[in-house]
Amino acid sequence: MNTKVIKLNPDFPEERLIKEAAVILKNGGLVVFPTETVYGIAANALNKDTLKRLYEIKKRPQDKPFSVHIADFGSLRQLEISLSKDAERIARRFWPGPLTLVALNNKKEKIGLRMPDNIIAFLLIKKAGVPVVAPSANLSGSKPPVSIEEVLSGMDGHVDMILDGGRARIGIESTVMDVTEKPFKILRQGAIPQKEALTDYALLFVCAGNSCRSVMAKGLMGKLVDEAGFAEKMHIDSAGISTFAGIGAAPNTVSVMKEEGVDVAGHIGKNINKDILKRSDIIFVMEKFHKDFIINIMPETKDKIRLLREGQDIPDPIGRSLEEYRSVKKVIKEEVQNIFLEIFKEEKK
User: Fold this and answer.
1) Which domain holds residue 36?
2) Rounded to an integer, what distance in angstroms lies between the CA atom of residue 198 and that of residue 45?
3) Contact 152, 40 (CB under 8 A)
4) Do the beta carbons of residue 238 and residue 205 sit within 8 Å?
C-alpha cells in the first residue's frame, strides 16, 4: 500500500492536516504520529478489523493488549475509569507526560492509559473523536523509532499515514506503572525514574537564585525524611526563578548547612520550568513575589503554592553575614519541621 507522509511543524502543526489524519484514524486507518517519547501507531480502538491489522503489523501476541492514549482527564470518564486518590495524584503530577498507568475500569478490566505531551498527538487524539490505542511504531521486541527515518524504515507501506513531527523530544519509552492495587508497581522502566514515579509526595522549594533559602529548605527536609525512614515516600527538589543554571550553593549556605550535618557543597542550581512545577504536589516559596511569578507563567499551579512561612516573606540573605544566614536558616528550619509533621502525621501515629 502507499503510505502518505505529511511533514508538520512540531510547534504549530497545521490543523487541517491533523484533521485529515484524524478522519483516516476514525475510519479504520492506521496513522503513525510523534509523541514526546517515541513514535506510535494510532488505531481506532472500536474497530476490530483495524486492531487485528495492528497486531499483524506489530507481530504482537493477541493476548497482549494495547494501551489507550487520551487527550485529557475527561476521557477517563468516557472509558469508565475511576482512579484512586493516590493514582490520580500521580496522574496529575506527570500527565501529560511520559507515564503509562495501568488501571481498572468499571468492569475490573486492566487498561493501560497514556496522555502524551505533544501537540500533534493531542490534536490527533482529540479530533479523532474515538478511543485511540497507540503502541510504539515498531515490530514487537525491536527498538522504538524516535525519528522519521526510523519510522519509514519499518512502517512505510504498512500504514495509511505517517505524521512527521521531527525527532521525539525525550527518545525513551514511557514508564509503565500498575496502579490497580497498593503498593503501586513499575512494570517497565522508562523516561521517569522509578524513585520519582513511586514517591507519595513531591515537594519543591523555590527562592530567587536557588543558592541560599531553597537549598537550605531542601537540605533540612531531606535530613528529616532520611532520619524518619521516609526517603522512599518523598521526592524533594529546589529551584530559582532567576538563577544561572549550574550555580552552586552560596559559601555561607554551605557553612550553615554543614552545622546541621547536611552537605550541600555539590548543589547545582536550576531555574523553575513547567515540567518541574507540574510534577510537584506542593510548591513552597520564600516570598509572595515568587508565588505571583509562578502563577503568571503557569496559572494552574495556583492551588498548590504556599509561602514557606505563612503570611510572611523570608528575607534573602545573599551577600550578607554568616550570622544573618544562620538567622534565616533558623526560620526555615522551624517551618520545614512543621511541614514535615503536617505531611507525615499519619505515619507517626
Assistant:
1) 4-192
2) 29
3) no
4) yes
Burial label, 265 (beta-carbon count in 10 A; 0-12, 13-18, 19+): exposed
pLDDT score recorded for residue 117? 96
pLDDT for 140 beyond 90: no
- What is d(CA 207, CA 204) in angstroms, rounded to the nearest whole number? 10
H runs (alpha helix) in 27-170? 48-58, 74-78, 85-94, 119-128, 148-155
180, 204: one domain:
no
Question: Which of 192, 218, 246 is where one domain is finished?
Answer: 192
Reduced to 3 states (helix: H, G, I; strand: E, B; else coil), residue 87 is helix
Q: pLDDT digit string (tens) for 150-184?
A: 999 999 999 999 999 999 999 999 999 999 999 99
What is the average pLDDT across 319-333?
Answer: 97
Residues 158 and 258 in one domain: no
- Cell 513547567 maps to which residue? 274
Q: Is the pLDDT of residue 233 over 90?
A: no
Grid coordinates belonging to 266: 555539590
Residues 18-49 pLDDT 10s: 999 999 999 999 999 999 999 999 999 999 99
Over its C-alpha atoms, the chain yields an Rg (Å, rounded) of 23
Mean pLDDT for the chain? 95
For residues 223 and 344, state if they share a domain.
yes
Where are any strands of DSSP class E within the chain? Answer: 4-7, 31-34, 39-44, 68-69, 99-104, 110-114, 132-133, 161-164, 175-178, 185-188, 201-207, 234-240, 282-285, 305-307
Domain check: are 277 and 178 in the same one?
no
Which of 167, 192, 217 is where one domain is finished?
A: 192
Average of per-residue pLDDT across 267-292: 95
Number of domains in the chain: 2
Hey, is 330 helix, strand or coil? Answer: helix
